[in-house]
């Protein structure tokens, strides 16, 4: 039997409960992973509301654990028992869809089959999970579990989004939603990659938090009537070479375009509810050469690169340790925008 978080009651206030469920069936090419910790990501709560489509009952996609059993087609030369692995959002890729083929056979996290944790696979809010061996993600020894877990989604997403900006080191990057889990990691990665960070978020308590992480300035959208103007002022009138929108609200997206410098890139990461849209006039793009791109987690290579920043001490995930029973409270606080930093659950 495996102790798992299950969520039910699709609504704006989803509830999680702990249940004992049988261990999942192990296919011939699967491995069984015993999880030590799991991070909690805003996407889990968005999934739990049911607004992002059908889900499995067990969510979670930032698990760190070890392989404890192999499927019948595998042996210890393929994967050693005890191998430390990360169980992230992408559990597998099909290799055959239009996106996988476009990636020339190499992995692509946008595989159209969306073989995601919590969607097509039971997630990591559980003591055990299964993973297909061919997409297993070994992670290095050394760093504590709770430090590594946030890199599996928040860390790799931040790092890949910054790579995708194409901005020159030394350029200003604005991070919208900077006080949240992904935002806090984005501040640290951006600084470590040589960028100058303007943190954008709502409320004064997040100001010192963002400055302590390495932001040069903080723009409080709750009190600042012209947030874009404040970003321009903080960047010596230039505007930001890129804005990373990690906040999941349409309002955050709408405010961000005017923060850009000419030829700047707006990078979409945060996922607003389906009814919150971004609106713009095409002339902004024609006149200023803005780009809008979406960034979607990253590849296994991106993950290993992102982990190296943590190993070198340049990125220090700020984690708050929690227990199984705390999930409903954390869910509420996240929905209310009250969480600064990243929750990790010891399993
Ligand atoms: Zn996530
Ligand atoms: Zn595919």
From TrEMBL:
<dbReference type="InterPro" id="IPR036291">
    <property type="entry name" value="NAD(P)-bd_dom_sf"/>
</dbReference>
<dbReference type="Pfam" id="PF00107">
    <property type="entry name" value="ADH_zinc_N"/>
</dbReference>
<keyword id="KW-0479">Metal-binding</keyword>
<keyword id="KW-0560">Oxidoreductase</keyword>
<comment type="similarity">
    <text>Belongs to the zinc-containing alcohol dehydrogenase family.</text>
</comment>
<dbReference type="InterPro" id="IPR013154">
    <property type="entry name" value="ADH-like_N"/>
</dbReference>
<feature type="domain" description="Enoyl reductase (ER)">
    <location>
        <begin position="10"/>
        <end position="345"/>
    </location>
</feature>
<dbReference type="InterPro" id="IPR020843">
    <property type="entry name" value="ER"/>
</dbReference>
<protein>
    <recommendedName>
        <fullName>alcohol dehydrogenase</fullName>
        <ecNumber>1.1.1.1</ecNumber>
    </recommendedName>
</protein>
<keyword id="KW-0520">NAD</keyword>
<keyword id="KW-0862">Zinc</keyword>
<dbReference type="InterPro" id="IPR011032">
    <property type="entry name" value="GroES-like_sf"/>
</dbReference>
<dbReference type="InterPro" id="IPR013149">
    <property type="entry name" value="ADH-like_C"/>
</dbReference>
<dbReference type="Pfam" id="PF08240">
    <property type="entry name" value="ADH_N"/>
</dbReference>
